[in-house]
Amino acid sequence: MLFVRLAAIVLGLLAIAAPALAAPPPVEAYGKLPAVEQVRLSPSGQRYAFIAVIGEQRRLVAVTADGETPLYATNLGTTKVWDVHWVDDDHLLVTLFHTSNLPWIYGVRVHKAEFINVLSINVKTGSAIAVFQGHPEVADMIVGAYGVAQVGGRLYGYFGGITYDGGSKVGSDIVLTHGWPDLYRVDLDTGAISIAAHGDEQAKGWVVGPDGQVLARSSYNSTTGAWQVRTGAAGGRVLASGVSKIEAVTEMTRGRNPDTIVIKRPTPAPGSEYVELDTTGKTPDQVLDETTAGLVLDPRTGLLIGVEQRGDQHYDQFFDPGAQARFRGATKAFPGLTYQLLSFTPGLAQMMIKTSGTDDPGTIWLVDTKTGKADPIGHDYPAIRPADVGTVEMVDWRAGDGLVIHGVLSLPPGREAKNLPVIIMPHGGPELRDYAEFYWWAQLFASHGYAVLQPNFRGSSGYGDSFRNAGFGEWGRKMQTDTSDGLAALVKRGIADPKRACIVGWSFGGYIAEAGVTIQHGLYRCSVSMAGISDTSLFLGYLNDIQMGGDDIWQRYVKAYLGVSGVSDPVLDQISPAKHAAEADAPMLLLHGKDDTIVPFAHSVAMERAMRAAGKDVTFVPLAGADHWLLHEDTRLAMAKASLEFVLKHNPPDPEP
Prior knowledge:
With about 650 residues, the protein is of the alpha+beta class. Helices cover about 20% and strands about 35% of the residues. Among the domains are: about 200-300; about 390-535 and about 575-650, Rossmann fold (3-Layer(aba) Sandwich), CATH 3.40.50.1820.
């Protein structure tokens, strides 16, 4: 049986169901990090890796698929892991995040940032090396990962690294005279490095072929918006080019054969499209289907073998008919659930699939298409029973101007969907979206009797460029009313009580939550903002500081959503919650990580100060050591407890049925 014995013991103990109780699971059941995550099959399917909570320890574990041999295990402690990836059956690449101050650049100390590091683990020998560690000529971080290749019997990874150029020091800190990376070839067993391609101020990325040769590089001129993709390491023949002020080539990878690459290039709309380019010039460009939302690569070769299609389900379309049939057959086993393909073996003989949604708080399945079996090997939230999860479904409504808006509705289990207290929970981004899946924060409120609506307002991703572009100029305007129109739709359907609504959001969703009781009025009984943007002028100023005064693509992109010309545009005050604190008509809870590098902690400080100066009801919970995503369990749990207590106080639910 392919069920791993070690994992079965650990995860089986974690997944023991609690006895039937009327009371919802405790906050800890939702607020803790998932009990198992990053479950990944090796390319052969003969082993897999995962992160699991074993006892009180978070551990990274690799085991053989028959359960006979534990291959590797290490305690992670509070290490923030972003991704686990098998290179081959012996090597794991583990992507880590840590918060630190940026180095000195041009003699100026810039803001804190999230640094990315990668560990290469050989599960056969038990050795682990950190990319660039022990190489003082390169900054201790990676700036992009560009694939792997086997050359001369050695396994190499290709990573962007900022090369020190002999600059001076300020104290013990090295002063960088530039911030762009070179492309390094890194031996994944010894850590030895060599430069594979030199970068420059405009270089943005590379594609490395299966033989280790650089197939192409992309560049972007931040001033003019001109972009190019050229062949080779130094920039040879132009494969594609154009001009875009708010888009660049955001993805480049290997194509369907060793001579082609796939890029996500800007279009005039504005927008972007996936196109396959032949580096030899023998075949014309091939634009992939407009519904393509992502790429699926072969786990062994890195070649393109399928695409993720746009829609309300994570659906992959494979070019090989046999693989497509196996994928379609596997997903039919999970009707009514949202599923996601986590990893797979060539031809999809075996798949690791995650499901969640109605009656499912998150389950990891090992699917074997040869035997026709699907074995559950772990649960995200083992203390939450299927019966604790109510209906999770996609819903839609029309905005005030007639545009159709979609969202996710989570209903409390065991209650009639009638006249319920409601939580409106807009997502971050703003160019992100929500799916009809188990989301721990939404389900925490649903478990206490609230209907929870997660609106995919205009400007969200996943619905095409025109829907995204409809959000430009609508920050604090129609994006805001799309959200409140969703509340009105639930009231019209009889699901929600209009007098018992709160708005709760994170990041850009936190902005919408703050604006919902300062710029909008008469809608919500309370507002909860986690890492929210309270002052749009302050936010643009922060982006300007990061670029040390330069106008870059990210600033232009944000200004497009804001609909402003620059940091001094008077419109910014009109759409900044902190500037309208005196108009707040409901209590507000502010939560913010002190190490937030995306939305600075200063935003919640400013919002609290403005609310208190206006004599308004505000509570501020600073989260020491917390980043923007709350990847440390203690800070995530603190946020969960504070947000639930606040909403229970100001918008109490119905008694238990």
